[in-house]
Amino acid sequence: MTSRALRISPAGVRGIVGPGLTASCAIEFTAAFAEFLDAPGPVVVGRDPRASSVMLHEGVLAALRASGRDVVDLGLASTPVVQHTIRRTSAAGGVSIGASHNAAEWNALKFLGAHGRYLSTPEANELLDVYHLRRTAFVPWDRLGQLRTDAGALDAYLDDLAEAFDLPALRRFRVVADCCNGLSALILRRMIDRFGLSLVLINEALHGVTFAHEPSTTARTVALQLAPIVRPLGADAGFLFDVDSDRVALADGTGRALSEELVLPLVADLLLARGPGRLVITNLSTTALLDEIALHHGGRVLRVPVGRQAAMDELTAHRPDQIAVAGEGTGAVMMPRFRFVYDGIASMLAVLTLMLERGRPLADLVDAYPRYHILKGEVPLSSPRVPRLLARLRARYATGEDAGHADVVDGLRVAWPGRWFHVRVSQTEPIVRVICEQRGEPPTALFESLLEEVRRHA
Amino acid sequence: MPETPRREHLLKVGVSGVRGVVGEFLTPSIAAAFAQAFGTYVGGGRVVVGRDTRASGEMLTHAVSCGLLAAGCDVVQVGVLPTPSIQVYVAATRARGGLAITASHNPPEYNALKLFNAQGLFFNNYERAELVDLYHQRTFRDARNDEIGGVTVERRDAARPHLERVLARVDAARIRARRFRVALDAVNGAGSLVTPHFLREDLGCDVEAIAVDPTQPFPRVAEPRPEVLGDLSDLVRRTRADIGFAQDPDGDRLAVADETGRVLDSDDVLALAVDVTLPHLPGDVVVNLTTSDVIDDVARRHGRQVHRTPVGEAHVVDGMLAVEAAIGGEGSNGGIILPAVHLCRDSYTGMALLLDRMAETGQTLSALAATLPGYTRRSGVVPFEHGRLGAAMQALDAAFPDARTDRTDGLKLRLPAGWIHVRASNTEPLLRISTEARDAATARMLFDRVGQLLG
């Protein structure tokens, strides 16, 4: 796996600290970012609680200040808070240090542009070029950047949330939140103090080395610790955050762990009804329930390749007021009100607002939706074998009688009415992901034959 | 000295650590990589990081902390602190090692990393060579998340262990009783806060200070040479001070002015310190080859020998360890090393010893200095091309066939009338020439003669 211990891509730098992501890599990439940034102004920096984040944080500060950039250091702060601070203070950009939903040994640097935007693909490619050319902008000793903090960053972020959501009205809900020892703990604790929300926090202590459980926002992790305590605590819902709080998963008031695929449909249901826009942007692997909800509200789903970058690029092709919501089936959702920042906290508030507006428990809301069953699997496969696999699958499922509609922009997605599958290569690991969904019944037979086909190529 | 050094002289990575012009040359990448090599070499554990007041100190603290953490060390940041205090802190807190981010007496655009072992001492030659090999091989330890330590910021008075050791070597009550008036020029360096406090609170002095704002740039040349200490001399005279002290930015070098405002020759300052110390401590004296014979005269008074080493604090310290010296130093640069405090150049030891001597004898500093045998020295530099050194040495050797020679650092010629020392600078493309004699005319004659031979 060491060959995949580091990935430097348009999405930033991600790797296993030690064998992959090193101090020098962090410094050199951040120096390239400082050189790449055109706009004047400071750079906002935040980090997650991982032990390695302290190391990377020092390197990032050194590189930025050596490049003559003033730094607004937020210390422990989530990516959404960093993004909000960039926008609020008209900073030139930001660096967020943390590996959100990845295991503790991973870490990553996310580079953010003006207004807290994720970099577009052309921008990200330019940044990569600067990095590979080792172009740096180190300045003389008397022009080094200064460091300051911003103690009000979290409150300003919460003020923004309080403007978008009726927080006093949401006090009526009793909510359990699993912070997974991550940054949501700081945000939610402050929300309790300031707005009196009825939140019960578990796994609240920040940890650098071991998390209470894998920080992935899936129904499986929700089922571990969170779902079983929702009913005993008399809570209306449970929310589980990744370490960075940009993603969320959930459990309903009956103690049922809900599929991570449901977060985006629920938020889409709320926002399409309010009518900020008609488009829902998501990726090819996300539930088809979304299409039904969009149709119900007279909206439309646009599907793009998997990954934040493709979603960002699609967003820029539309006027912001045309878009209702964007996101993935991983619990990562971004809303136009928050300038398209993946934000698990805002997603939680949106789901609670939906419960409030519809006057129904979360379980009822979910059960009223058509029932979709999604199966997800993965098979190790070396990259050279992938094209042949995809060609075989396409020949088998997208030609002749009973052919589905094929989409080949990211691996192969074949869709029939009420049923689809998507076979694609992971961006982070040498594996092929197989995702298969069906309305009404689990698509077990299709899923098994797909897995068998993939394994045959391995 | 050339006005604009050539590019290859703007960064040095070698056995004395890393030193360079911050920006294009001394980059955060280099600093972090060197710190990671250091962390790898000391094998993890607690490593102390401190700095002087240079503008680049904070940036390099980030970079060094990053490299140390990446090597699996726990970082203890002591912030702005004199180098000798950092060294004693390393030893007193049983850390695995320490780094001082300071270019000592170099101009503000420079910075450097000074490296200390678990005893708070400079690495010896063999250790330094191994460390530099590690740096070049890039065979660093890359700690994983569960092996990475953290950063601790020391908020207590990190200079205290050092100052307590200094105070233990003098009769502080005797000094306090005199309520000396002391003028101080801390060059806005690491001593800006520590030194006034030390002189006032620990030694009961009435302190008149200039350049004690650590947030401001150096107001004068960083090296406390007599010709740049006019403000201190004025301060001494204006405030009728008993003595004046000037430090360099990291508080290891000391210059001293007497009550008339005259800045003493730094060899004489060392000689006074030697004279104070030898009655109380066993052992010989170790100085570098360029240090005045005044040290030999003073040591002879106490029946002790003087040993000479190549120029550089690390060499002197190595020599002192080897002979278990009572005291040592380098007259040429205001360095006093008292192992009973710590084996490092230390301006605080120098200040305390001189004040103690004045308190003990009741004499003025000028009177104490007048008891020293008089020598005159001349020194200067000539630009030096690589490859010319051997020929220059041969020419000198041939010109003074009767001289006793010492070739441990360049060439030292001992003549009946005095001595000549010619050596290549460790840091710049220069030959440094020093001569000494009992009278000014002879010193000058020797100096001019060398100039002709090398010109």
In short:
Chain A is an alpha/beta fold and 458 residues long. Chain A has 15 helices and 20 strands. Chain A has 4 domains: 2-152, Alpha-D-Glucose-1,6-Bisphosphate, subunit A, domain 3 (Alpha-D-Glucose-1,6-Bisphosphate, Chain A, domain 3); 165-258, Alpha-D-Glucose-1,6-Bisphosphate, Chain A, domain 3 (3-Layer(aba) Sandwich); 261-368, Alpha-D-Glucose-1,6-Bisphosphate, subunit A, domain 3 (Alpha-D-Glucose-1,6-Bisphosphate, Chain A, domain 3, 3-Layer(aba) Sandwich), CATH 3.40.120; 372-457, TATA-Binding Protein.
Radius of gyration of chain B equals 22 Å
Mean pLDDT of chain A: 94
N- and C-termini, Cα separation of chain A: 17 Å
Number of folding domains of chain B?
3
Strand content of chain A: 15-25%
Kindly report the oligomeric state of this protein.
heterodimer
Low-confidence stretches of chain A at least 5 residues in length (pLDDT < 50)? none
Question: In terms of topology, how is this protein built?
Answer:
The complex is a heterodimer of chains A (458) and B (455).
Chain A: E1 6-9, E2 12-16, H1 23-36, E3 43-47, H2 51-66, E4 71-76, H3 79-88, E5 93-97, E6 106-112, H4 121-132, E7 147-149, H5 153-164, H6 167-170, E8 174-178, H7 184-195, E9 198-202, H8 219-230, E10 237-241, E11 248-252, H9 263-274, E12 279-283, H10 289-296, E13 300-304, H11 308-316, E14 323-327, E15 333-334, H12 344-358, H13 362-368, E16 372-380, H14 386-397, E17 405-407, E18 412-416, E19 419-425, E20 431-439, H15 444-457
Parallel strand pairs in A: 3-4, 3-5, 4-7, 8-9, 8-10, 12-13, 12-14
Antiparallel strand pairs in A: 1-2, 2-6, 5-6, 10-11, 14-15, 16-20, 17-18, 18-19, 19-20
Helix pairs in contact in A: 1-2, 1-4, 3-5, 9-10, 9-12, 14-15
Chain B: E1 11-14, E2 17-21, H1 28-42, E3 45-51, H2 57-70, E4 73-80, H3 83-92, E5 97-101, E6 110-116, H4 125-137, E7 151-153, H5 160-167, H6 172-178, E8 181-185, H7 191-202, E9 206-210, H8 230-239, E10 243-247, E11 254-257, H9 266-277, E12 285-288, H10 294-301, E13 306-309, H11 313-323, E14 327-330, E15 335-337, H12 347-361, H13 365-370, E16 376-383, H14 389-399, E17 404-406, E18 411-415, E19 418-424, E20 430-437, H15 440-454
Parallel strand pairs in B: 3-4, 3-5, 4-7, 8-9, 8-10, 12-13, 12-14
Antiparallel strand pairs in B: 1-2, 2-6, 5-6, 10-11, 14-15, 16-20, 17-18, 18-19, 19-20
